[in-house]
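Q: Predict the bound structure with 2BA.
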Amino acid sequence: MDFIKQEDALYNLTAEDFMISSEKVAHVQLNNPLEHALLILLKSGYSAVPVLDSKYRLKGTIGKGSILNETLGIERFEMENLSTIKVESIMDTNIPRLRKSANFFECLTILINHSFICIVDENGFFDGIVTRRAILKQLNQYFYLNKDVFKMS
Ligand code: 2BA
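A: Predicted complex:
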């Protein structure tokens, strides 16, 4: 019976319950040069962050790997590309996105292949992110609370 209650508890969680809200998420803007994006990524310690437009609508994500790729010339690093190329032209636009109302299992399924999911409202405005860490924390708590059922010590 307890097991069923806890399972219900996971089903009742929505993305909003474990989302990092937009004001705490490091991000870059479409028209930023790559050097600015690289600075944000290096200073924050994250490997990828969301890309927003000037109205805070989600447009994609950008990571360290794709920025460094742009500096690779045939015989040397073309560091000048960091100031001439804009985030918009190399960002990843093929990214998963969910609403705040998405349930725990929708988030879990996407986070198997992505380290975070962007959360947007019905007009595409950025609300925040759900990270793999947050979802694993909930799962860990669920298994701990049900340890008798799963015969864990
Ligand atoms: P990554 O940057 O590849 O980070 C992978 C994991 O390393 C993170 O997993 C977290 O557990 C740890 N980590 C990395 N940088 C950290 C830092 N500065 N402080 C504390 N822990 C750090 P998650 O927490 O599951 O995050 C998944 C991904 O979500 C991160 O991948 C990053 O791309 C993004 N992310 C998380 N929090 C963010 C934030 N506040 N702003 C922007 N992006 C964020």
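A: Helices lie at 2-12, 15-18, 34-44, 64-69, 81-84, 87-90, 104-111, 132-145.
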